[in-house]
Amino acid sequence: MTLRVLIYDDRPLTSDGVAGLLTGEPDLEVVGTAATRSQALRMLHAEAPDVVVIGLCPEGAMDAPFVRELVGRILDRPALVVYTPHPDQSR
Is the entire prediction scored with pTM above 0.85? Predict the structure, then answer.
């Protein structure tokens, strides 16, 4: 079974890096990357991913309230993976 993955991070270098790492995995298919909230929500419904990978940056667009909103909209799917940079690496 191939898992469909959506990556949401407002830092292109980071989202491209995560996509590059996941693309080499035989059981994963990156269905897209989103850099804004509206893109993430649109792609969530259009692509129906099994997993959403979110970069959580305290000073950026990926804040905890939005993660709660996203979880509220996805019901029982997809799985959610949240990562955050080390404070010295967030910029």
Answer: no
